[in-house]
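Subject: for your reference before the review

Hello V.,

The reviewers asked for a structural picture of the protein, and I figured it would be easier to keep everything in one thread rather than splitting it across files. Below is the amino acid sequence we used in the manuscript, unchanged from the supplementary table.
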Amino acid sequence: MKIIRIANGNIPKYIIELADKDPEITGYVHPEKDIFRYPIKDGEKVVGFFSPRKEDKEWRVGAIFVLPEYRGKGLSSKALKEFFYGDNLPAYAHVGIDNFGSQKAFERAGFFPEDSVRIDEDGWESKKWNKT
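And here is what came back from the structure prediction:
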C-alpha cells in the first residue's frame, strides 16, 4: 500500500460523501471545505482518506475513513505509520470510546490512549490518542 500526499481533488467525491454520512465521523468530514485529505489506497485504488493537519508543533489526525468493504485489512494503521515515518513531531487524535476499529488502527500505528475520557458539547465521548 502506498500513500500519496495529494490534495482533496484526487479522492473520489463519492468516498467523501459516504464518509460524511458515516455515524462515527459525521460532522467531522466537512465535504464543503477545501481541506487536505490524503488517500488511502489498496493497490492503485483509492479506498479512503485521512485528514492530518499541523497545529503549532504537533499533528492532529482528523477524520479517517475507509470504505466498509476494505475495513479490517490494516489500511488505516499502515497509512498512519507511513505518513508519520521519520516525522519527529508529536501527533494526536480523538477517538470515540466505542470506535474499536479506529482504536486498533491507532494502536497498531504506535499511538497510545490517555486514561481520561473527553465529552464534547454534543455528548460525544472520546479518548485522546497520542504519538510521541
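For the response letter, the relevant points are probably these. Confidence is low (pLDDT under 50) at residues 1-9. The chain has one domain: 8-131.

Happy to draft the paragraph if you're swamped.

O.
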